[in-house]
Specification:
Layout (H helix, E strand, L loop, with lengths): L14 H4 L3 H14 L2 H10 L8 H15 L9 H8 L5 H15 L1 H17 L7 H11 L11 H18 L17 H13 L4 H5 L3 H4 L4 H13 L3 E6 L2 E6 L4 H9 L1
Antiparallel strand pairs: 1-2
Helix pairs in contact: 2-3, 2-5, 2-6, 6-7, 6-10, 8-9, 10-13
Amino acid sequence: MKRVQQETVDYKANLQRVGAAIPETIALLREYAHHGDWNLVRTAALQDNLLQKGSSETVVGILKAVKRRVFLDMDTLPSAETLALAIIADIPDTAKSQMIYAYICTSDVLVAHTVVGLVRPLVATAFEPCLTAKDVVRFLSQEATIHRELRIWSETLRQRWAGSFMSLLRAVGIMERLPGNRLQALVMRVEAFTFLLLGLLEGELSPGEALAHTLWDWYLLSEPGKEILLAEAQGRGWFHYARAGDIVELQPRYASLEEWIHASLG
């Protein structure tokens, strides 16, 4: 299936429509891995109640959101087909959620910017970082001074978006579960890290460019955190990695990302 064009840099009111929908995304991608045809996935969701929802309107909304998120015209993220292969692999759901998170951030500029502009500084500087819906709404108000499209958002819409944003953070492990509101450094799975890193390298980035890519900011990854993950990936035989000052040597042990998925993830 041809991938749709990525959205513009304008901020969109998308996240609050269906939220993170990560379990639903996993279910749809499993079906896509089986059929390789999004139309058949849509049929299974609408006619066979694949997502086990009581409302067809809800299902349609989730289908639109997942399609928008995973069929991206982006060289830095693996294709929907490759993502689907990883989703059906024998890896923890936490790793799958963290993979999907990159697609949500890439397809929704406001989500990515709120993580980098609001959440990341809090985690980096606060002694006990917490986040409330009021904090997110205040951030949106500040952004409205630059992004005029936010000025027409109602207070209700801002609050709904803030709630969905916090639910996303909880779904990927950046925020503790309800009723708490504490932020925490993400414990990134090495499977998700390797999946994304191999995708960047296949996008013809150099090792240094791939490791410095902005997507790692969405995971709140520090440089020591990257080193730990690289060492773990090397220990599993997935990479050869070495660093001498600013010189980075990073060589995948597999010819392609798909070969790594088949050989290492099962």
